[in-house]
Amino acid sequence: MGVLRPFWSPTFLPFGKGAAFLRKTFAKSPEDLAVTQIKGVKLLLWANVLLAMKIILVGVFQDQLQVPSLAAAQDAFLAQQSQSLAQAWAAVILSTATYSLQIAFWGHLFIGIARLAGFRLPRSTWRPLGSKTLMEYFNRFHYYFKELLVDFFFVPTFFKMFRGHPRLRLFFATFMAAGVGNAIWHFLRDIDLIVTMGLGGVLASFESYAFYCLVLATGLGLSQVRMNMGFKPSLSLAGRLRSFLFVWSFVVCLHAFSDGSRSHTLGERLAFVGSLFGVS
Amino acid sequence: MNSDGKLKLRKFLKEALEKHGDHGELDDSESLFVSGRLDSFSMMQLVMQLEESFGLDFSTVDFDVSLIDSLDEIEAFVDANASS
Lengths: 280, 84
Prior knowledge:
The structure holds 2 protein chains of 2 kinds.
Chain A: H1 19-25, H2 30-64, H3 70-78, H4 85-116, H5 134-141, H6 143-160, H7 166-189, H8 193-228, H9 237-255, H10 266-276
Helix pairs in contact in A: 2-4, 4-9, 6-7, 7-8
Chain B: H1 3-19, H2 40-54, H3 71-81
Protein name (chain B): Phosphopantetheine attachment site
InterPro entries (chain B): ACP-like_sf, PP-bd_ACP
Pfam families (chain B): PP-binding (PF00550)
């Protein structure tokens, strides 16, 4: 997964996919360059709007209305401190919202700067609230991460495995990308933790994210197969609302397992999510 | 690839573009995937379509997206690799 990282992409995630792809996307004329740069400026402005929204959300809900952070809500649940169901739900939803805004801001920042440099790159996050299926959400939320998983895990699996069984082929390739690939990438990203936590500690604290990958991959795989079978989400207002509620309920519930913190075990998180549905 | 095959392919790609909210024109030489007009999952749908319609076997090909990045390139690829 090692690729040459351009100046706007200091993370492990290659925004712009790598040198060969970048070369093909560079503006081909002065007019094209101007349009690309204007799009870059617009995207950077939008990134700042999203950042402001995140700051306002935290200021209003966390600071003024005392909605706890996700970790604090989980701690309170585990310590059996008094916490209303509404507070616990608010903590999960707020954490999902701020995380989503952060990912979108972060992606727009990198792509906006790349566009200023003349690369006509697609956005990393594109209208995720409008996703009508889980697969569409995954595609729209974090494009370059998805592309990385597709290139390294989906495509090789898809070309080699279960070629005579189209639906199994699609499910398995999606599972390998969103599940196995996702888990491997995140494990390798934080591999330096082995120095401080030891291999056992790192593996144990990774079980929650591994569970997240398993559920996400299963959901995405089924979503892919369903679309392949001809499912078309309704475009009516009620249909869109149903799709929105389904996709984002899934995302919110799963977020409790993928918030990036290693401070709670899988069992503790399962118990916390269960408590949100009245299961003790 | 005969003209009927190309017509079907064009229809398939137009539908894929429309699903992505892209209602623009589709020229034969225009980039589909590298330009970002279509994503990699659309590419897989295209691969399945090509396998089904032309009996192609992608597992034997040293695959790169540039092989099927435009209608012209898809046509050339099918002509060079189709088994029927």
